[in-house]
Design a protein that fits this description.
The protein has 84 residues and is mainly α. The protein is built from three helices and no strands.
Length: 84
């Protein structure tokens, strides 16, 4: 029995090698695309006085309770209504 001689074709001539390289390469390219999108399309920062604005909203008249911050509004909805 004779052993077949190894192929002398270089590695880059095989299609399955490029298939294996394409997956990680696509992930690296997608990472850079995501980075560019994040840097160019950055959202503006929250206002520096956000806490004061929230307190001012919570002190408004009862007719304007829809403007309460989410957590306070949620907690208010869970408590029983006060009877006059």
């Amino acid at each position: 029995m004779s052993n077949p001689s190894p192929s002398s074709t270089p590695w880059w001539r095989y299609g399955h090698v490029w298939l294996l390289i394409a997956g990680p390469a696509a992930v690296v390219v997608a990472g850079f695309v995501t980075l560019v999108i994040a840097v160019r399309g950055a959202d503006p920062l929250v206002a520096s006085d956000y806490y004061r604005r929230g307190l001012a909203l919570s002190r408004q008249a009862p007719g304007q309770r829809a403007l309460l911050p989410a957590q306070e509004g949620r907690n208010h909805a869970a408590t029983p209504a006060e009877e006059p």
